[in-house]
Write the structure tokens for this entry.
Amino acid sequence: MEEEDEEARALLAGGPDEADSGAPAAPGALPALCDPSRLAHRLLVLLLMCFLGFGSYFCYDNPAALQTQIKRDMQVNTTKFMLLYAWYSWPNVVLCFFGGFLIDRVFGIRWGAIIFSCFVCIGQVIFALGGIFNAFWLMEFGRFVFGIGGESLAVAQNTYAVSWFKGKELNLVFGLQLSMARIGSTVNMNLMGWLYSKIEALLGSAGHTTLGVTLMIGGITCVLSLICALALAYLDQRAERILHKEQGKTGEVIKLTDVKDFSLPLWLIFIICVCYYVAVFPFIGLGKVFFTEKFGFSSQAASAINSVVYVISAPMSPVFGLLVDKTGRNIIWVLCAVAATLVSHMMLAFTMWNPWIAMCLLGISYSLLACALWPMVAFVVPEHQLGTAYGFMQSIQNLGLAVISIIAGMILDSRGYLFLEVFFIACVSLSLLSVVLLYLVNRAQGGNLNYSARQREETKFSHTESMQADGDMEVSWMMRTQKCRIILGDICFTLLKIYSNIKIHNGQGLI
Amino acid sequence: MRYSVERGWGWGRCAPSPLLLLTLLLFAAPFGLLGEETRQVSLEVIPNSLGAPQNLLHIRAVGTNSTLHYVWSSLGPPAVVLVATDTPHSTLSVNWSHLLSPEPDGGLMVLPKDSIQFSSALVFTRLLEFDSTNVSDTAAEPPGRPYPPYSLADFSWNNITDSLDPATLSATFQGHPVNDPTRTFANGSLAFRVQAFSRSSRPAQSPRLLHTADTCQLEVALVGASPRGNRSLFGLEVVATLGQGPDCPSMQEQHSIDDEYAPAVFQLDQLLWGSLPSGFAQWRPVAYSQKQGDRASALPCHASPLHPALACPLPQSPIVRAFFGSQNNFCAFNLTFGASTGPGYWDQHYLSWSMLLGVGFPPVDSLSPLVLGIMAVALGAPGLMLLGGGLVLLLHHKKYSEYQSIN
């Protein structure tokens, strides 16, 4: 029993030193790669975990990378094209409340990951078949199925991460998972157009069949994700058998009745979030053709610019995470990020300056906002409502994305790109208005959202009992927040939370 | 020598420099070519006193101290002669016997002759067709293997008296080849719809070119003709008289940020017969393959650079020769509509392209009031809220002193 406890602790504590000093004979018979308590094996599992989400992120932005081709081959206008994004978001309006529940109570993490991977795979195949059979409704249905699996798979991915890695390693793991997500999106943007032209050369003509074949080949990444899910399930079960460790749980608790207790600052944070992201993601979805037609870029260059937001967010997120952690003053950072996005959209709308400048600015502000905004939810909501708060935030965000995607398509077809940009500027302006209002309300109420890091430390030390979360709640909180941001972009909040938690738990007699 | 295409960048305005504007304002009175707000427009089909009716349309737009004469005709290839005078009393005189003779010089005159400030002409000589299969570079010239072109001088036209509409100040020339052995135009026609305007406005029909009282609009529509290939691109050959001096008129591409009126079209092409204010032709480099002309049916339109039309003999237009005499110095350029992929003429056997022809400063698109309003609110509201809230907090703060807690 003690041996097993030691091994379990070795797994949970992480790090090769403890594993070496702790574990005695029995698992030593296995080679390092097959031993669940050794680092080498866990690195293998890490690799599988990273690729688990790769297919989903790769295929999410397939429409954006192939916008011209889809519109031409399927003979649809922009409004119908944007339905491909809207249908991805519709199931997640409801599902983000239930993702954790499904994994904890219904399927378990292993089957959950496999089932969601299957949904992703099948969804992408149906999407491709819609192209082959020239049925746009089938493509929409495929995106719907894909959406059911996509976001919940991210929850599963995070649950695995927390189950296999704890403490200081978790930062690195989340960071790597995020990087894989962003690499997937970037590779998609830059690869799919080229792949389409190669298939076109092979088959001899453009058309819906070429599109379908291209999407089917893109779906190979989803099959890869499914294989990773199966492998992870096997390895997880094996580790449970060897180490007697429990299946991972999300630990989320969702109670919809908690919504009535949400405070005004929280509602303002919701508005900021929704209004901001609806001006970023639909823009990226429609961006490639914008750069081709307004600035005269080639298809490849336009794809590259479109992917710049993702490329920047991967390295900058940890940097900004540390920055916000060190300085605090979240609202000011959110204000800077939203204002910078406003400037970026204005540059794209009203000038002919090189769009690389505006897109780099957009990427930077997008990373900064995620680092500063999402932690604020944890500051205004008590622990037991955190699951509901984040679930609600994600739900309305998906609702906003679904609706605004369609509206953006309609505006573009009838009024053109300038009006679309003005519409996005109006959305960002609404977000900016909410930030200003949040600042004023926070000041008036004497709230803690805009505390500097030092003020927050001082407040923490005098309220440590409320910060001492038990294992499940900590996991749940990290899970929830991480899930949201992996989907939208970054790791900084984890750094902030873990960093501050480590500082508390490593106490040094501060408690 | 390359008769180059200039690129103008900016905020959507082909704005003359302030110095030029000032200079022009000083010279406004004698020139009279600067925009009249409204004009009295009259359309007149000039009857042939000598026999069978020929299509000769005279549009007379009279302002307070200038007159614009547009003479449209399908005698020979479709052509337009544009004359601007500095008096509201100038008239057109037509000598049919001269006009219909082999030497039409002097058959068309605007009197009094010394009141003429500007004159130019455009002739639409040929309808081109290219086979665009296996062509990947859509900006290449020519955009594919050319089929034998249709010479518009060999078309037979309808009687425009029937299509004259005084309410909209428009008339339509509709024609098909006289000799059509392959019966490509059996169910089709090429139409030139001419419309004059008495004041500035913007039509609802794409491409929604802003017109003024100093312009008239031409819409070229190819309907129902059978293409000679699966992926045929059509084009139009246009011939222009020389600008000021011995050079060809200059072609300019105006890039703008504003595509409100023609979604995804950020460019305006202009043909200028001299330094402004002068005669101009203006169009958006887009054609439409459906009647309602939305973004899904937009075809790119490429204009070739202007080259002097010396080498190959072009179909002669009698009215141009009648007015300008027998000079042979013309400049030609080609317009091609569509690309090998995407929407094209093959969708509905319909193609339409519009242009403006006028005198003075070409109309410029500006941001609509809706856009300006939204921007004002979007930028103003957060700023005002920040200011207001800051003031309130400041006053609130001054009321209460800070409470220093003991511990």
Observations:
- Confidence is low (pLDDT under 50) at residues 1-32 of chain B.
- The longest strand of chain B covers residues 116-131.
- The first helix of chain B runs from residue 18 to 26.
